[in-house]
Amino acid sequence: MKIQISNGMFLALIINMVYPKAIGLTQGIMAREVGRDIWIATVFSAVQGCAVILLTILVMRRAPHLDFMGLTEKMLGKWAGKITAVILFIFFAGAYFSVMITYVYHLMDYFLPETPAYLFLLVAFLIGGYGIFSGIEVICRLALIGVFFITALNLLLLTGSFQELDIRGLLPVLESGFWPTVWASRQNDTDWAIAVLMAAIIVPNVRDTKTWPKSAVGGIIIGWLLIVQWPILEAAVLSPEVTKQYIVACMQMARSAHIGLFIQRYEMFMIAFFSFSLLVQISMCLFCACRAAANIFSLNSYRPMIIPVGLILNGLAYWVIIDHTRAMRYLEGPWVAISVPTAVGIPVLLWGLGFVFKKKLQQAES
């Protein structure tokens, strides 16, 4: 029986796929480039993300039962489909590394510094692997819970930080200049890129074809409304100078928030509410990598690939994560070079090919 997920679940997945790293590591990276203009760069990135995911959905609606790998195969043949699968596998392997950096550094740097990094990776793999083995419907339900906790976390942070807010921290606007700020948004582009190519794989499982564009664009917009609060508060409460000093700037922001005399620091709230969203992101990156690997080897199910793909990804992720300098260089350089061109290039290429091979796609649909 074909897996079917609701459009609400699809929207929740997109929100969860863009949120964790965007508030966790991206803001600190951008603060080192454009200082107080990080929130403007986040807005620029949201506009770019909406455009690319809308293009992706328009491409998918030409053959609603096919993902990007199937579309390529129908238009260009079996081996072209496998090449697309290889590209997507490399992309989601890179995405998995970036998510694991976010996950491990939140827990290891702030709560469990004596715990070996491989234990964090093992736990994430066991939970994520079990989740996708049970079916992505399970992850979709977790995504709905994740959106609730993300919203609760944002409300708590806003309540606890409002009295410290100094709007002068956001001024002058575009201090770094317009084009440098637009260029800095590429760091945030890596976050929606994961959501875009995840959608390119799971959209055929979403029930209502007519509402795909609304759910996809709505997920990006709602996700970035939840995200943009963080750079605004980091610039207006912590100051850009403080924000750029931290790898995980959001944890320092959580430490600065407090309500009254009893709830003075938010780290535990941060991890408790943040963990659902991180779990969804880890699971879906693993799922998409397994789907791509199954396509490469012409398997009907992704489940046989969970263990081998998980071992490969976690082994490489450990090598990246074990060195903080190496991890940050990866996020600021190679990951940007891999993620953004892939997330933009594949939809644009398939959109153009769709006009050339229009008859083939119509035959596939009929």
Q: What do these coordinates show?
A:
Helix 1 (7-34) packs across helix 6 (136-161). With 366 residues, this protein is mainly α. The longest helix has 33 residues, at 78-110. The model has no long low-confidence stretch (mean pLDDT 88). The two termini are 21 Å apart. The chain has a single domain, classed as Amino acid/polyamine transporter I. The protein contains 16 helices and no strands. The chain has helices at 7-34, 38-60, 68-76, 78-110, 117-134, 136-161, 178-184, 186-202, 212-238, 240-243, 249-256, 267-296, 306-321, 324-332, 334-356, 358-365.
CATH topology term: Amino acid/polyamine transporter I
Q: Main beta sheet, described?
A: none
For the terminal residues, how far apart are their CA atoms? 21 Å
Based on helices, strands and strand pairing, what is the structural class?
A: mainly alpha
CATH class: Mainly Alpha
Could you say which overall geometry the principal axes of the C-alpha atoms support? globular
The share of residues in extended strands comes to under 5%
Overall mean pLDDT stands at: 88
Radius of gyration: 20 Å
Compressed to H and E, one letter per element, the order equals HHHHHHHHHHHHHHHH
Individual helix count: 16
Unreliable runs, pLDDT <50, ≥5 residues? none
Number of strands: 0
CATH superfamily grouping: Amino acid/polyamine transporter I
- Helix fraction by DSSP (H/I, runs of at least 4): over 70%
Q: Quickly count the domains.
A: 1
